[in-house]
């Protein structure tokens, strides 16, 4: 195994409540009477990508909306909210252990590069580029999760095959994307995905801290 590939939202950290807050503040600032409560947001999260989510909501209302402008405002608000968030249990230890074992690290996420940067600064105290060797994020791919594109891009940029890495995810869409890219995937559901069915995770655990580090992963995921 040569690399670990991490999803961001819900995997590195529980960020979706902050995203929901940022969306609602952006709508209010734009003078829209939209408010996504937890139940509506949980449903909308089946649509990956903030712009796509806004567009879906507008379509549900039968109206058009300035999607790009609303999403840019939301991203600006979100990056200002992430100070003080914590990595999910087990993530810091896993990343440290991977580095010590000489593995490379990547991110494969639907969220924007700006959000990845803000989350890394808030949780690791360092820019994303000092933590991860490869950052595949947001609109760098046309088809978002559950399409495999962002994981295939991460593998290409790592210069390795899917047998040489393991993906870490919190959602069904993420598991489907990683599996479609040929990757084995460890799933630990988050607050907004706790209800989701198993869609083929190689390992379905309660918390990443159960993993016991890279050595355990190597034995659980022998080279194929
Ligand atoms: C989860 C997503 C993102 C976030 C919001 O990404 O689907 O859309 O909900 O972020 P991940 P944006 O693949 O990391 O789980 O508004 O920047 O899309
Ligand atoms: Mg996620």
Could you characterize the architecture of this molecule?
This protein has about 220 residues and is of the alpha/beta class. The protein has 10 helices and 6 strands; from the N terminus they run βαααααβααβαβαββα. It has a 6-stranded parallel sheet with strand order 3-2-1-4-5-6. The chain has helices at about 15-30, 40-45, 50-60, 65-80, 90-100, 115-125, 130, 150-160, 170-180, 215-220, and strands at about 5, 105-110, 135, 165-170, 185-190, 205. The chain is globular and about 55 Å long. The longest helix has 14 residues, at about 15-30.
Give the number of helices: 10
The helix/strand class is: alpha/beta
Shape: globular
Q: Could you give the order of strands across the largest sheet?
A: 3-2-1-4-5-6
Strand content: 5-15%
> What are the low-pLDDT stretches, counting only 5+ consecutive residues below 50?
none
- Strand element count: 6
Any ligands, ions or cofactors bound here, and which?
Answer: xylulose-1,5-bisphosphate, magnesium ion
The largest β sheet comes out as: 6 strands, parallel
Comma- or semicolon-separated keywords:
224 residues, alpha/beta, six-stranded parallel beta sheet, 10 helices, 43% helix, binds xylulose-1,5-bisphosphate, binds magnesium ion
How is the secondary structure organized here?
Layout: E1 3-6, H1 16-29, H2 38-44, H3 50-61, H4 67-79, H5 91-100, E2 104-109, H6 113-123, H7 128-131, E3 134-137, H8 149-158, E4 165-169, H9 172-180, E5 184-188, E6 203-205, H10 214-220
Parallel strand pairs: 1-2, 1-4, 2-3, 4-5, 5-6
